[in-house]
Design a protein that fits this description.
- The complex is a heterodimer of chains A (303) and B (312).
- In chain A, 72% of the residues lie in helices and 2% in strands.
- With 303 residues, chain A is mostly helical.
- Chain A has a single domain (2-293), classed as Orthogonal Bundle (ABC transporter involved in vitamin B12 uptake, BtuC), CATH 1.10.3470.
- Chain A starts with a helix and ends in a 10-residue tail after the last helix.
- Chain B contains 13 helices and no strands.
- Chain B has helices spanning 4-34, 42-57, 66-88, 93-113, 115-118, 132-135, 138-165, 167-177, 179-184, 189-215, 225-238, 243-267, 273-294.
- Chain B has a domain at 13-222.
- Chain B has 312 residues and is mainly α.
- In chain B, helix 1 (4-34) crosses helix 12 (243-267).
- The chains are: A mainly alpha (303), B mainly alpha (312).
- Chain A binds chain B through residues 31-32, 34, 93-94, 97-98, 101, 103-105, 107-109, 111-113, 115-116, 119-120, 122-123, 126-127, 235, 238-239, 242-243, 246, 275, 277-278, 280-281, 283-284, 287-288, 291-292, 295, 303, and chain B through 36, 38, 40, 87-88, 91-95, 97-99, 101-103, 105-106, 109, 112-113, 225-226, 229, 232-233, 236, 274-276, 278-282, 284-286, 288-289, 292-293, 296.
């Protein structure tokens, strides 16, 4: 039982980070970006390539109890920056040109871009699973087996959860304490009013893409660290991301975080009931339930 | 004459596929082109139709005649559509996109894992191909099936044309253009939308059944998201809101897909084939993006509908 909860929280961390990016682009750029999942995948694979460049054929020297070395922490911001660059390029080449049309054209375009990006990645890297490190990690037993089934957790998993919370707090401070953050919230609330009030909407747009894609890259790297890297990594997470963002209420950062953890826990707790093969269907049920019961989400405004 | 036969066989094979995609594309056109409903789960509804028809007609299933399969496919796809539609249609439009995307993922999971029903990853084999033995297979059967596909395509086309020019179709377009105005005129928005969504999905299910009886074998990997994407490419390139555009897009995109596939097979060594297939999808993705930017109405845009009483 405890173990399931812990597993759910770890998956939830990845979903939460990805969903925060999704909810921001959804609220500020005003369309459901089906490409968000691919930013996770690209971030994870860019980090893999950077590690390869940095280390050559050598393996990472593990850092303390972790399976990864200082190198992974070093390439993480670079991979996030490159993923943000990819998002900006995509915006420049595609989304910006469609802005005048209906929002739904953007959704189709993002769906097309997602498939193209995923297949391009598959073309470049092949379909075999990859790992950041082959280091075997020993899980630490936090709770003995006789209490609620016990709890074992690896240092990597703890690092992922800790860094996720740190990232979200940093984002919260950015959105509430800086001018940029206030401008972003203003545009989410009412773009025309924000423009009239002198907010640089272009800058907000760029910042939204950068933040959303960078968070996705971090989520992708965490997913790769606690699992394996596959070209379908981000695509398989897309439905949980949407479920989490809608559950939390579109535009709400803490809602997306909470939604991410709820979806992660629901998936993990459902495994003994429905079997691991139907795990992905759980986020769909969460989505349907929230649409039927409370379409505005937990913290959302308008449905 | 004898060297022409393989070409004829290939052309009939190609056209039969194009026609099947055309049927699916007409279903999507009813939803997106006329009602403005954004369905990202086309592959899921096609899969429901294909599996339903296969289970009804295959010897391992009920073993009933093929026409029952086609009807069953439409009913099954319509039922799933009704469930999805009730949950998602009353909300903002992109929630329908997310929900249909989700339902396609779940259908894919069921196809892959519910082995007692769907055969799991191996799928369903020996789906009856109507009159295959009677005409001895080969070219004769290809032509026969092509005729069947074209007949179904024609019937669906005719029915949809009648439907969208009827008062029902006018309400649908009114809804797409201005929901509030239509509601103010007393039109029941939710019901019209649900009807259009269900009907469109039924047509997609019919397309899936046609596919199953043509190939004679279905597996979960036939209904991946890339199928949804292909159908969308067909509709966008051809021009949504116009049935002629939908069918022309189906032929065109299927042609580009087949040609690029053949080309990549020629150019790339055996070991790189799987990677080459990925490039095909990139090509189609780019095609959609470029069409959306340069010619958002597609090759054949929607015909302007002007009342015959106007200007009098």
């Amino acid at each position: 039982m405890l173990q399931l909860l812990a597993d759910g929280l770890i998956v939830g961390s990845v979903i939460a980070l990805g969903a925060v990016g999704l909810t921001l682009t959804y609220a500020i750029l005003r369309f459901a970006n089906f490409g968000q999942g691919e930013f996770l995948t690209w971030g994870a694979y860019i980090a893999l390539s950077l590690l390869g460049l940095l280390l050559g054929a050598a393996a990472m020297e593990p850092l303390g109890p972790f399976s990864f070395g200082i190198e992974l922490l070093a390439v993480l911001p670079v991979a996030a920056a490159l993923t943000a660059l990819l998002a900006l390029a995509l915006d420049w080449a595609l989304f910006r040109r469609l802005q005048q049309g209906q929002a739904i054209a953007l959704v189709i375009a993002s769906f097309g871009a997602a498939l193209a990006l995923r297949n391009l990645l598959q073309f470049l890297y092949g379909t075999l699973p990859e790992y950041y490190t082959r280091e075997i990690q020993i899980a630490i037993r936090l709770v003995p087996r006789d209490t609620l089934g016990g709890l074992r957790i690896t240092p990597d998993q703890m690092a992922v959860m800790g860094l996720t919370l740190l990232t979200v707090v940093a984002l919260h401070l950015l959105l509430t304490r800086t001018t940029l953050g206030r401008s972003m919230r203003a545009v989410a609330e009412n773009p025309s009013l924000a423009r009239v009030a002198g907010v640089d909407v272009e800058q907000v747009r760029r910042a939204t893409w950068i933040i959303g894609a960078a968070l996705a890259a971090v989520a992708g790297i965490f997913a790769g660290l606690t699992g394996q890297l596959r070209p379908g990594l981000g695509f398989d997470l897309l439905l949980p991301l949407f479920a989490a963002a809608i559950l939390g209420g579109i535009g709400s950062v803490w809602g997306a975080v909470l939604g991410g953890f709820i979806v992660g826990l629901a998936e993990s707790l459902a495994v003994p009931l429905v079997g691991a093969e139907y795990r992905a269907a759980v986020s769909f049920l969460v989505l349907i339930a929230i649409l039927l019961l409370r379409p505005a989400g937990l913290f959302g405004g308008r449905p | 004459m004898s060297e022409l036969l393989p070409i004829l066989s290939y052309v009939s094979f190609f056209l039969a596929f194009a026609g099947i995609f055309g049927v699916m594309c007409l279903g999507l056109n009813l939803q997106w082109g006329f009602a403005g409903l954004f369905n990202v789960g086309v592959a899921g509804f096609v899969a429901v139709g294909a599996y339903a028809s296969a289970l009804i007609t295959a010897p391992s299933g009920l073993g009933w005649p093929v026409p029952f399969g086609l009807v069953g496919a439409m009913l099954a796809a319509g039922l799933v559509a009704a469930l999805v539609g009730v949950a998602a249609l009353r909300l903002r439009e992109d929630y329908l996109a997310i929900t249909t995307f989700g339902v396609a993922v779940v259908i894919q999971l069921v196809a892959l894992n519910a082995e007692w029903l769907t055969g799991g990853p191996f799928g369903i084999q020996s789906i009856p191909r109507p009159l295959f033995e009677a005409v001895g297979g080969g070219l004769a059967w290809n032509l026969l099936y092509l005729a069947l596909v074209l007949a179904v395509l024609g019937a669906v086309w005719w029915a949809l044309e009648r439907l969208v020019t009827s008062p029902w179709g006018r309400v649908l377009r009114a809804l797409r253009e201005d929901e509030v105005a239509a509601a103010a005129l007393g039109k029941r928005v939710a019901r019209f939308r649900l009807e259009a969504f269900i009907l469109g999905c039924m047509v997609m299910g019919l397309g899936g059944a046609l596919y199953a009886h043509f190939v004679g074998y279905i597996a979960p990997e036939d209904f991946l998201p890339v199928l949804t994407f292909q159908i969308w490419a067909m509709l966008i390139l051809g021009g949504s809101g116009n049935n002629r555009g939908a069918v022309a897009g189906a032929v065109l995109v299927w042609g580009i897909w087949t040609l690029s596939g053949n080309l990549l097979r020629e150019l790339l060594p055996q070991s790189e084939q799987a990677r080459g297939a990925a490039l095909q999808v990139v090509l189609i993705g780019t095609l959609i993006a470029v069409t959306l930017i340069l010619r958002p109405r597609g090759l054949f845009g929607e015909k302007a509908q002007v009342s015959r009483h106007a200007g009098k």
